[in-house]
Amino acid sequence: MSTNQENSTTQTSATQRAGGTVELVALDAHAVRASVDLVARATEADLSRPTPCAEWTLADLLAHMTVQHNGFAAAARGEADPKVWELGSLGGDPITAYRDSAERVLEAFAADGVLERMFLIPEFGDQPLPGRQAISAHLVDYVVHSWDVAKALGVPAELEPAAVELAYDIAQVVPTGDARLVSGAPFGPEVPFSGGSRLDQLVAHLGRSPNWSA
């Protein structure tokens, strides 16, 4: 069994434990909306704040989050234009640009049969992934990015426990060790951490310190 197949099987088991694949889409939507609510609290002055993502300001993080939403939305529609995934300027109103991208991905993921579609996600290679696996990855990203935004703004990340728990289960397939040290690795080395909330445990597993502060 290939690594992608193993990861897909593990992610499928995680979604089944959480109540089924329909709940995966609902919990992803919750994480996306939570991130929109947090971003809406930011001011123009906040865009220069540091974030837990090394060397990224809040503006940089929003640019990344926006292009990811647009890319995943396009992939859900069966589109494969690599330019959709390229970082670009968010214009004069990055907060509105982010909200608009979130609406696009929410609409795309709400389509009938989305979990059975094949998504082409460039950062995962040139082979399409089942929608279930792609949306599982998206859920993990937006639970963690909601935490990133909250930390940057110095406010709590209010996320449903079910979304955090499912993201934590899915994230256990992310390789640790030397794989995190490779240039371009999506996550930094795991941060040793015990106790805390499940969200703390999730972000530590994915290379962020739960105690991070601006």
Topology order in helix (H) and strand (E) letters: HHHHEEHHH
Structural class: mainly alpha
Query: Poorly predicted ranges (pLDDT <50, ≥5 residues)?
Result: 1-13, 15-19
Largest sheet: 2 strands, antiparallel
Structure commentary:
The protein has 214 residues and is mainly alpha-helical. Helix content is 52%, strand content 2%. The chain has seven helices and two strands; from the N terminus they run H-H-H-H-E-E-H-H-H. It has a two-stranded antiparallel ribbon. Helix 3 (58-76) runs parallel beside helix 4 (94-109), helix 3 packs antiparallel against helix 5 (131-153) and helix 6 (161-171) packs parallel to helix 7 (198-205). The N and C termini lie far apart (43 Å). Residues 1-13 and 15-19 have low confidence and may be disordered.
Layout of strands and helices, then pairs:
Elements: H1 3-17, H2 21-39, H3 58-76, H4 94-109, E1 118-119, E2 129-130, H5 131-153, H6 161-171, H7 198-205
Helix pairs in contact: 2-4, 2-5, 3-4, 3-5, 5-6, 6-7
